[in-house]
Amino acid sequence: MLTNRIIPCLDIDNGRVVKGVKFANLRDAGDPVEQAKRYEQDGADELVMLDVSATIAGRETALETVRAVRRELSIPLSVGGGVRTTDHALALLRAGADKVGVNSAAVDNPGLLRELADQVGAQCVVLSIDAAARRDGNGWEVVTRAGTNRTGIDAIEWAARAETMGAGEILLTSFDQDGTRSGYDTDLLRAVREVTPLPVIASGGADSAAHMLDALCAGADAVLAASIFHDQDTTPNAIKLELRASGIEVRT
Amino acid sequence: MSDITIIDTGIANTASVTAAFERLGCGVTLTHEPSRIADAPLVVLPGVGSFGAGMRSLRVNKLDQIIIDRVNNNRPLLGICLGLQLLCDASEESPGIEGLGIINAMVTRFPYTVRTPQHGWNRVGDGYAYYSNTYRIESIPDGWAGETSKHGSPFVAYLKRANTLACQFHPELSGAWGANLLRDWIENAKEVVAC
């Protein structure tokens, strides 16, 4: 039976791991290769790396980081952040990413996912959705550019289009919950689960196995977390023991 | 140290496969030259993307008959994911396109009642393997050994016959369990090459 995945996330800026709250106030959190290896040893099922560097030089460095991590890592590596063109995505895949996540560029050019899927297959393409609660409290809208741009696009409708756009997976981040460690947005997860057959990775807000259990029960296929693993509060294996005790299928 | 030749037709995650063999201390060559693939001791057919694109790429590079000959002559071949499916007769994914016909089976889609693509770890025997697939073979064909995993209903995890190993999962992404499987394939294949 297919198990539920526990996925640590590394935010990478100029070859270093960083961590912020609500996509801001970045602080240095270590060497990506060392952390990737530690996560694999600690039971991670997959690793997500998000390139948060804002410069061309930073993006070149990110390619190097992907190569270095790939050499050491024997679990899947999904890479996203600032992917704007098919060529950039292909370069990341050639460097050793197994999947590439597209966020802002998919909003600007929805044809990008299809173009990519036609070349490498939809299973390598992740639609990364950053969703924020609408200010009038009525559902969620897609935000881009680290949350600075509110697009007005309905996040649930956007998720519903993911499969036909060419994605093979959705990485769903709650902008409101990200970095808060107060739990995933399970209402958002439930709403997305209803409209797409694709695997959904829940992201934003995890602080405990209990939060992850909530997300998996709300329909997520995988749960992503950054802070709790960075700060070594817990490990994927420790989380899995708790989830298994609650009857959730995990790889141990 | 063994030399591994990976068939590079531009449609696969060759970086991950290369890295996995390099971690085992192997030398790795990426090529689509028919003569080198015909002569190499250990050949890997990786693959992601669609069945039709994969077959087209093998035919354009004149590799289809070479792979068939390798298997017929019991020369070591490892097929991964789409690399397994291309060895079959045909696939629902690309109707009307013939596969290599080495494995007498039809590749079919997972039903819509289970999550697709199947992204993640699924049990194979005493371990877990990482899958990333929407299509699969439903049962082990006559003449092949192998094991199944379960996603809704059982499907083929891997098939083995003489020096051919074909995996629906990605051993290169399946942690220590996958690395052991690759090491075993190399060790077992080497014995026969030496004969």
Provide structural commentary:
- Helices cover 38% and strands 27% of the residues of chain A.
- The mean pLDDT of chain A is 93.
- In chain A, strand 5 (77-80), helix 3 and strand 6 form a beta-alpha-beta unit.
- Chain A has one domain (5-245): Aldolase class I (TIM Barrel).
- Chain A has 11 helices and 12 strands.
- Chain A starts with a strand and ends in a 7-residue tail after the last helix.
- In chain A, helix 1 runs parallel beside helix 2 (56-72) and helix 9 (209-217) crosses helix 11 (236-245).
- With 252 residues, chain A is α/β, with parallel strands linked by helices.
- Chain B has 195 residues and is of the alpha/beta class.
- Chain B has one domain: Class I glutamine amidotransferase (GATase) domain (Rossmann fold, 3-Layer(aba) Sandwich).
- Chain B has helices spanning 14-23, 34-39, 51-60, 64-72, 82-85, 175-194; strands spanning 3-7, 27-31, 42-45, 77-80, 88-91, 103-109, 118-124, 127-133, 135-136, 145-151, 153-161, 164-167.
- In chain B, strands 2-1-3-4-12-11-10 form a 7-stranded mixed sheet, sandwiched between helices. In chain B, strands 5-6-9 form a 3-stranded mixed sheet, with no helix packed on it.
- Chain B is globular, with a radius of gyration of 15 Å.
- The A-B interface holds A 1-5, 40, 45-46, 67, 70-77, 93-98, 119-124, 168-169, 197-199, 221-222, 251 and B 11, 13, 15-16, 19-20, 22-23, 48-50, 112, 114-123, 128, 130-134, 150-151, 170, 172-176, 178-179.
